[in-house]
Design a protein that fits this description.
The complex is a heterodimer of chains A (about 120) and B (about 350). With about 120 residues, chain A is an alpha/beta fold. Chain A contains one helix and eight strands, in the order H-E-E-E-E-E-E-E-E. The chains are: A alpha/beta (about 120), B alpha/beta (about 350).
């Protein structure tokens, strides 16, 4: 590697830092906020809301049952399975791998949802 | 409840016409939570009437035997519209005990408990011990299989049953089959019987005379009432194919906490009220959750709306005529679905 190349790389790195500082950082913040807020899935009126939730790898998703009727959260592929959630009870699961995880309520199987992990 | 109207079946036979179902008849049909239906077998043809009418002098007369269906007691539920479901179950049992003609047995079509807790099953057992009819036949609801795939339910109520709890028995020439359609439910689906149970059913019915009256009972309706809420059973058609050759088939279900009836050929479908809380008519609320009403209005709310998907021709009399009666049911069913909404006030 020549000196010149190093300098260019260094400049590129500087430029990247500059971009991150000016543009990137607010972007990261903006991305964080919705995923933070959306890591909770409310079970309300026999619906998982939001029905599809997109989160970064490593996120923990929490389901909370707001109905007067018990529900469950069960991965269609056996990745996770909650106990029965009575009113206001919660279940959390940490998604450590990317992918799309379909789930449903095993008591009311018409209730379905998806967690998209990126 | 007038004397004139005490027999729902007669009343409806008299009043039904082309434009729908008699409103008063349906009002009579709408007993409140804590009641159930009494079924009288007469010549193998089951007839139903709401409990509230069963105190008349003709109640329970003429049947070869009778039984009571109760459903959806949800012991452990403690929210509006019914913070005391044990009390309303007790009321149901008291009404059964007060019937002039003692039923031979009770069928409970599931959701005994709210959360499958041992204490809930214990309470149910205590209340049912007070019933004059000592024999109770159970099938599980989804609430009875919440935490252990129904193991506890099977231990308590399913001795001698097959698979997840299905079985059959005979009573004075009537063949009863208890089916389980709440086990191993699949994402996006409704109730499910499953291959093993269907095979067993086919075998169970094999060799029986077509004149044997058949009563199928299961928690979730074995006919599709409202798919959006999962009110149906995905593979019930297969089960119904096996009973098609029989002259009288009665299907008793719970799950939807309201009365609905349908007659299709020789098969009559009925759903029972809950002893715990009402649920909305299909599509009349954002979800199938409990209908919350003030306690003093419970009775009225349960009486407000009834929706019937009926398959019939010109005459609607078959709706409540003795179920699956090949002899007296009006013929010529055109297979036209009929839906009626009855608003009953005052």
């Amino acid at each position: 590697m020549t000196r010149k190349n190093v300098r260019i790389t260094g400049l590129a790195a500087l430029a990247m830092i500059a971009t991150l500082t000016v543009v990137g950082f607010p972007n990261v913040k903006a991305n964080d906020q919705p995923s933070e807020a959306a890591t909770e899935v409310k079970i309300d009126n026999f619906v998982f809301g939001p029905q599809t939730i997109t989160v970064p790898v490593g996120s923990t998703v929490t389901w909370i049952n707001k109905d007067d009727i018990p529900h469950t959260t069960v991965s269609t592929d056996g990745v996770f399975k909650s106990k029965v959630l009575d009113t206001d009870e919660k279940f959390s699961f940490k998604f450590t791998k990317a992918g799309t995880f379909s789930y449903f309520c095993s008591v009311h199987p018409k209730m379905t949802g998806k967690v998209v992990v990126q | 409840m007038t004397e004139k109207n005490k027999n729902l079946i007669d009343q409806k036979l008299q009043n039904l016409n082309n434009d729908g179902v008699d409103r008063r008849g349906f009002l009579k049909c709408m007993a409140w939570a804590g009641t159930g239906l009494v079924w009288t077998m007469s010549g193998g043809i089951p007839m139903s009437r709401a409990f509230a009418k069963s105190h008349g002098k003709d109640a329970g007369k003429g049947g070869d035997f009778s039984f009571v269906q109760i459903s959806d007691s949800h012991i452990g539920f403690n929210k509006p519209a019914n913070p005391d479901v044990t009390a309303t179950l007790q009321t149901a049992i008291s009404k059964i005990n007060a019937m002039p003609h003692k039923p031979d047995f009770i069928i409970h079509t599931g959701d005994l408990s709210q959360l499958s807790k041992p204490s809930e099953f214990d309470t149910l057992d205590q209340v049912l011990k007070g019933a004059s009819a000592k024999q109770v036949f159970y099938v599980p609801g989804e609430h009875d299989m919440l935490s252990d795939n129904g193991e506890q339910f099977l231990q308590r109520y399913g001795k001698g049953t097959k698979g997840s709890g299905w079985y059959s028995f005979d009573q004075k020439g009537v063949h009863f089959v208890g089916l389980v359609n709440v086990a191993n439910l699949k994402a996006g689906g409704m109730g499910s019987l499953g291959h093993d149970q269907l095979e067993w059913l086919e075998d169970d019915l094999k060799g029986r005379s077509a004149s044997t009256p058949i009563v199928l009972f299961a928690h979730i309706p074995l006919w599709t009432i409202y798919p959006d809420w999962g009110w149906g059973t995905d593979d019930s058609e297969q089960a119904l194919a096996y009973v098609k050759r029989f002259g009288s088939v009665t299907v008793l279900n719970g799950h939807i906490h309201q009365i609905m009836q349908k007659v299709e050929g020789k098969v009559s479908f009925h759903t029972a009220m809950s002893t715990a809380f009402p649920q909305p008519a299909p599509g009349k609320a954002p979800s199938a959750g409990p209908m919350k009403v003030p306690a003093d209005q419970l009775q009225r709310v349960l009486g407000i709306t009834d929706v019937n998907y009926l398959v019939s021709g010109r005459s609607l009399a078959i709706v409540d005529s003795p179920l699956g009666d090949s002899g007296s049911s009006p013929s010529g069913n055109a297979g036209i679905p009929f839906a009626a909404v009855h608003s009953i006030r005052g």
